[in-house]
Amino acid sequence: MSKILDAAELNEGDLAPDFDLPLDESRRISLSALRGKKVALYFYPKDDTSGCTAEAIAFNRLRKDFEATGAVVVGVSPDSAASHKKFKSKHELDIALAADPDKAALQAYGVWKEKSMYGRKFMGVERTTALIGPDGRIERIWRKVKVPGHAEEVLAAARGGFPAAPFAKG
After folding, report:
1. Domain-embedded: residue 117
2. Closest Cα partner for 75 from 115, 36, 48?
3. Catalytic pick from 21, 31, 52, 74?
4. What's the CATH code of the domain at 96?
5. Whole-model pTM?
6. Using one digit for the tens of pLDDT, what is the confidence trace for 123-154?
7. Is 52 labeled as catalytic in the residue annotation?
């Protein structure tokens, strides 16, 4: 476990680690297959929890706007492909959700971290988003994401700008 905790965090300008993860029973997604496109890669803790549902719905609502910038939205959690399928169906989501039950991508991106809640320590996903450029480099990274306004902020960055005051949340 110490290797995971000591993993160096990725920074803007770093080459994004490749991944190859299942989307469902028959399809997979890899960063190398998305080369040439921007990728809004967001890591979230668990399907069908309130914050994760709100985040998925926000990214899904802006999916066509992301596509207009040439960006693809991909969510990653440690849940199974079957869990993602149920989650997508329940909330009518049309974005890619990749399953990482082995936590390989979560660890490669440094988002599988020790967390604490009510004095209890445990390992979990630190809500993080990386905007990856067409060249495979991380253009922008958001750590410890707060959901309200986040998808809009990522979209603004994908468009090449940064959000104005309406998206700034305190």
Report:
1. yes
2. 48
3. 52
4. 3.40.30.10
5. 0.87
6. 999 999 999 999 999 999 999 999 999 999 99
7. yes
